[in-house]
Amino acid sequence: MRNKLENNSSETRKKIFDCAQRLFSQRGYERTSLSDIAKYAGLTRGAIYWHFKDKKDLLVELVEYLENEKFALKKLLDAANPKEKNPLAVLKKCIYSMVEDDIKQYFNSALMSMIISIVNGSLGEGDVREKLMKFIEKRKNNIIEVLKNCVQQGQLPPNLVIDAAAEHLLAFCVGYIHQARIEYVPYMSQHFEFIIDLEFETIKKLTFEE
């Protein structure tokens, strides 16, 4: 009985995410309400509030859901586990996925444009931006834990400045996303693995003197 309830709950959340993604993409954040999403999903408002505190909470969880679906972020979390002996390979694999066609479509989607506008402060209320920034900070912390494991496994220098390395890697990824959004990455798309290897050679130089 418990498994059935958990499955039903998971299916309901997926339905809500799918409908929220469509409506946010079509109408934007400010013109989409939880009532709209509930109606589109064939659910009551109470069912929506059972899963999400408010629209801001739903948006952040939608972004996390999409990232998990598209970037296999569970693998990234697994790479932080000390039992993973090749965390650098796992991290690179997650980054390689950025050149896949469905992910580039996501980068160019109306939903991504909406998220960027909120993060830039040109759309939505300040508290929704704050929630998204906390999510971005959480992702940075995930990368920091993976980099620590890479150091522990001897794949990166023991005196690596880990915060600087994480910010450098995030800046690279954000830069690629913006370039992909204007479809100006023909060389990078064809030679992405080589470029990522160069990126990590640069990161290895972000060390402090012992």
CATH-defined fold name of the largest domain: Tetracycline Repressor, domain 2
- The count of DSSP E runs of length 2 or more, i.e. the number of strands, is 0
In helices, the fraction of residues equals over 70%
User: Segments where pLDDT lies below 50 for 5+ residues?
Assistant: 1-7
Tell me the number of helical segments per DSSP (H or I, 4 or more residues long): 12
Number of domains: 2
Q: How would you classify the helix and strand content by structural class? A: mainly alpha
CATH architecture of the largest domain: Orthogonal Bundle
Give an overview of the whole structure:
With 210 residues, the protein is mostly helical. The chain folds into 2 domains: 1-52, Orthogonal Bundle (Arc Repressor Mutant, subunit A), CATH 1.10.10.60; 54-203, Tetracycline Repressor, domain 2. Helix content is 75%, strand content 0%. It has helices at residues 2-27, 34-41, 45-51, 55-71, 73-79, 87-96, 101-107, 110-120, 126-152, 162-181, 186-190, 192-203. The chain starts with a helix and ends in a 7-residue tail after the last helix.
